[in-house]
Amino acid sequence: MPEATGIVGEFLSLREEADADLLAMQCGDFYEFFAEDAELVAEELDLKVSQKSSHGSSYPMAGVPVDDLTPYLKALVERGYRVAVADQYDTDDGGHAREVVRVVTPGTLLETSDADAQYLAAVVAGEGYGLAFADVTTGRFLVADAEDRGEALTELYRFSPVEILPGPEVRTDDDLLSELDGTLTPHETEAFAPKRAAHAVGEQFGRETVDRLDVSREAIAAAGAVLAYVEETGAGVLASMTRIGAHHGDDHVTLDATTQRNLELTETMHGESEGSLFSTIDHTETSAGGRLLKEWLCRPRRSPALLEERLACVEGLSTAAMAREELRDRLGEAYDLERLASRATHGSADARDLVAVRETLAVLPAVADVVSSTPDLADSPLPDRLEEPDREAAGALCRELEEAIAEDPPSTVTQGELLRRGYDPDLDEVIERHEAVQAWFDGLAEREKRRHGLSHVTVDRNTTDGYYVQVGKSAADGVPEEYDEIKTLKNSKRFTTDELEEKERELLGLEEQRGELEYDLFAELRDRVGERAELLQDVGRTLAEVDVLAGLATHAAENRWIRPDLHAGEGLSIQAGRHPVVEGTTEFVPNDVALDDDRRFLIVTGPNMSGKSTYMRQVACIVLLAQIGSFVPAREAEIGLVDGIFTRVGALDELAGGRSTFMVEMSELSNILHSATEDSLVILDEVGRGTATYDGISIAWAATEYLHNEVGAKTLFATHYHELTGLADHLPRVGNVHVAAEEREGEVTFLRTIREGPTDRSYGIHVADLAGVPGPVVSRSREVLDRLRDEKAIEARGGGDDEPVQTVFDVGSGSFRGPANADGGERPAESRSSPESSDGGESTKGLDPDAKRVLEDLEGIDVAETAPVELLSKVSEWQRTLEDR
Ligand SMILES: Nc1ncnc2c1ncn2[C@@H]1O[C@H](COP(=O)(O)OP(=O)(O)OP(=O)(O)O)[C@@H](O)[C@H]1O
Where is each DNA mismatch repair proteins mutS family domain found (predicted)? Predict the structure, then answer.
């Protein structure tokens, strides 16, 4: 194929240079995709493909209008493509050329409509792991250190980045990469070079700030790589990243990825947001508030001072119901300031965005007024919190915007009507002249009617004819001479005049002048707003915090939640606690929990479906809620602050991930045993269930001993292995509780009440019945269970009709004893299986016939009844048999 020239040639060469999957190139009023890109985009976005010829060849072409690019870009990026955008510019010789100005990727997409945070992350491995997270839509920038891969994954899960830049060593770490969810972008290795990265971070945030952060080289390398990437992709938002924060694990409660999932913090186990803890307690009015609440839930805190401050705010807000509602009304008028700040910095904010900035800045003093005039709030830490942003600067910026931006500006920024009168004298003059000419046009029809005695005269404009005077057919013959006919319609004629044309030129000139002048003034104003990104982020953050606190107070007030007593001690005492999500869906039976120095490990037994999991999760959720600064669903709660919450609950199949259910269960257990400390809360639900019963019990047993003796964490362990309840007699700090159920005339009622001591009934068959297992299976299960309880033995049914019973399983020895008599009794011992029989015994499996015979002989001997000499001769006989083999 001959080499393409012209526009297609330009496209193909830019395409080759661009580090992207697709290129959108501006050609006048359209962004065009050519060749393979056109076909791909057309298929993904349902666009029409046309053909463009170049140099004798024809190329597929698909395009979108310039003003419509954003939604298309968004859709492509959300499908995982990296899209380069080439803009057109005028060349000196009067022609056009294009250059790539931006590569839009999942982590640098500014135009997101999703309220969630959108993090771009980098991970660097070295002595430990260094991580950096940036949200280009809000300017948030954080760095964190992680000791090992597990910790790094925990942080990554917490921030849930949409795009991840793996550092050079991480790129080959398949174990880590396979656990990551976002788009992986292997960015150039040099960006991770420690010196270059440290320089970039110092330049962006100030060298002193970086020193103060006290994070590893790896974290700085990750931060440098993120900055380089944001700059190279041309998102143009570096200026909104004014502050770097260090995320120190020590300040936060450790919540590993599994626990965040198990406690269904932001989505349920089935991936739905409805039914999650977040969706239950979220009463925020703003998207920034919702985002912050999610952040709090995934990052509970350990600082008592901070938590008490939040709790005091929630308390004030929950008491002052009227003021709270007023505050929430005010907050409802706020927009997402952090995001607006990024758009202003980037230069993509329009006049309506600046109106939104102004309106939101005005919410702060309104909120402050409500707070200061309400005693319950004025005495809380809220007023101090509201003083944190520079209120004076915020007020000044608000006034400046008020004076500048028109009341209801258009969404385009190039066609004027953005700014108010009095904002700029030059603009006022142009506007006056423009309006004078406009007024001339507005009065023209009336004037012409009067002047020439015409009826049916209108004046209008369209793109082909420009301005014209339209006269009804009946009056058209009477028009004066200077009228030039330009078009005949069915019922009328259109005319122009020299004067009209001159005025039109004047009007168009003024329109253009006004548009350009307004745009320049607007762009300057927008830049000034962009320079105040830090201020806007402060105000946005403060409003978001008030929103979260007011939302928590609303939930507390509506659901009778109470303020927990936090302390640094070991204990955990909750009276009449409820599960925060389940209490909203059912008549909930409240329950207590009491753990202290002497009793730190509870074994929770109880029937299937009785509520063991709910009880344990309820305890974990209450502790977690207390450590975000929320009230909790209980009558009373005294909570010793924890440093981590670890859970291992019902396994979700991870077969797709290549790991068996049991493997997942064990690696989660392993993580808990390694990571939990005596200040942690551990929730174990049925550990060991995924393997053979005796293996399972042994693992559960040993894990209990280890947690009790070595780790000392506060632990709740639900199990169906009733054997474990015996541990309470041997380990001093282990206690037993059970969920009560009542059985009357074969009917089981779940009471949902936690009682002291163990239980050994599972009522599993009752649950099987409830679940619709066929009747014969349920009744046979009951029979089997009764026999097992009474006789510790049960016959297996099957085979032909004449011999329905074949073998008997002895629960005591754990093996089949041989065929039962027709009357259900056992056969005499001498008729026990021969070596060849199918039940030759688990113990002799894999042995040769001689060895088997020896073993069976040995088994058959009754030592008490056999003379020593006879025994000796037997032993030497066996030896001979074995030697001869
Ligand atoms: N305190 C309570 N009050 C009212 N309903 C409850 C309570 N606790 C649990 N439930 C309800 O009981 C059902 C079973 O609870 P859960 O799953 O916790 O039982 P479980 O004992 O862990 O069961 P299994 O041993 O079979 O896993 C759930 O539907 C839950 O909504």
Answer: 680-696
